[in-house]
Amino acid sequence: MNEVEKIISSIRQKDFSLFPKISKSNDLKSSAVKLYYQTKDEHKNLYSYKNLYDSILDKMEIGFLILNKSSSEKDWQVFYCNPSFTRILKVPKYNSWAFYQEKSPEFFKLIEATDFLDSQEFIDISIQESSAQSFSIRTSRISNFQNDFCVISMESIQKIIDKKEKLAWNNLMKVISHELLNTLTPVNSLIHNLEYLTEQENLTDEDQEEIKDSLKIINSKSQQLLHFIDSYRQIAELPKPKKSRINLRNSIEKVLKIFEPEFKIQNIKLDVDLQDFFIQADESMIERVLVNLLTNAQLAVQHQENKHIRLQVFESNNRVVISVEDNGQGIDSQIESKIFLPFFTTRPNGSGIGLTLSKSIMEAHNGYIVYRRLEKGSVFELWFL
To answer: How far apart (Å, rounded) are the C-alpha atoms in residues 28 and 242?
Structure first.
């Protein structure tokens, strides 16, 4: 085998242990040597990237299993598996996907049922006879002209919940701390000033007037703090719903009568599409949620030239839905994630508990509330069982 053939053979076999010398000539050997070093550099770069991606995935708490098969193969093989995956399922790293059928049959059946296509599933798995744990499992299919890949991620639902609870708790503590500091800091300053004034032997008329003004401010701040605490209590101590069979049409019509005079004064056009839907619910609680949503819609359209609110009830996926839509400015995308947080408000005189309380009431009814931004305006939906 001559030297050129040896270099080309090394390139084909990805054997980069050779160190051929680069010559200045333009013959075939020179071209082969240049191609060899070019391919060697590309191989080193690919290997570096692979090590980087492997390092990132290896350190993630989410379990990852990547399967692949070529166009000529029938069975899936394991392309990659990170330590978190083997730790979660308590299984070794196999080369063949079929081997997981015996070690983790529930997981295996679930993935097979997805046909290795894009999906999200939830599963309770009992590992090594321990109590069942809940996991969120996502599959994603990626294909190219030679191979099919199925990326499977597996994350503990409890960890997801813990992260969200911690984030919600931190946000709540920030709000409470801010409110307390805003109230108590000026009160503390006024109290120190009162102590100074009352320690004087003689009080002038000006001193007495200052004491009265200070006491009025302390009283006002105290009332604000009591209102804040009462608002928090409403959320924290939401009573258990007293459910009965109610007709949503009747409940909605009662709430609309409250808003009818104000809507006329503000020239708000109201479109209503109601049907007779009966559900098991606490009527007073549901009416309170509707009042909150209609109040928000009313405020959202107040600066619009043509004010428009649409309220409808319909059925979707065997669930009853109440939709309240407005053509207002909508909610800024930067604060969308915060609108259900306790005491979060963008209005100067807002309490910041309306949507939080509405969310809690819907959850107490085994339902939920969702927000969607429209091209012009917003829509809130109440989903019932």
So the answer is: 89
Cβ-proximal residues to 315 (8 Å cutoff; 6+ apart), any chain? 277, 321
Neighbours of 151 (CB within 10 A): 18
CA distance 192 to 207: 14
Spell out the residues 6+ positions from residue 187 whose beta carbon is closer than 8 angstroms to its own.
Answer: 217, 218, 221, 222
Amino acid letter at 154?
Answer: M
- Angle, alpha carbons 185-190-196 (nearest 5°): 135
**CB under 8 Å to 352, separation ≥6 — which residues?**
175, 231, 341, 342, 343, 344, 345
The DSSP call for residue 371 is E
d(CA 245, CA 127): 43
Q: What is the mean pLDDT of the chain?
A: 82
Whole-model pTM? Answer: 0.47
pLDDT average, residue stretch 295-303: 89
H or E element, residue 247: strand 244-247
Q: pLDDT for 311-367, tens place per residue?
A: 999 998 888 999 999 998 877 777 776 777 666 566 655 556 778 888 888 988 888
Task: Give strand pairing partners of 81.
Answer: 65
- Tell me, what DSSP letter sits at residue 99? G
- Per-residue HEC secondary structure of 129-191 comes to CCCCEEEEEEEEEEECCCEEEEEEEEEEHHHHHHHHHHHHHHHHHHHHHHHHHHHHHHHHHHH
Render pLDDT for 142-177 as a digit per residue (tens, 0 to 9). 888 788 899 999 888 767 666 666 666 666 666 667
Helix then strand count (H, E) for the chain reads 10, 12
Q: What percentage of the chain has pLDDT greater than the value 70?
A: 85
Predicted confidence band of residue 178 (pLDDT cuts 50, 70, 90): low
**Closest alpha carbon to 354 in 304, 306, 294:** 294
Q: Using N-to-C axis directions, what is the helix angle for 205-236 and 157-198, rounded to 10°?
A: 160
Q: For residue 287, report the phi and psi dihedrals to the nearest 5 degrees.
A: -65, -35
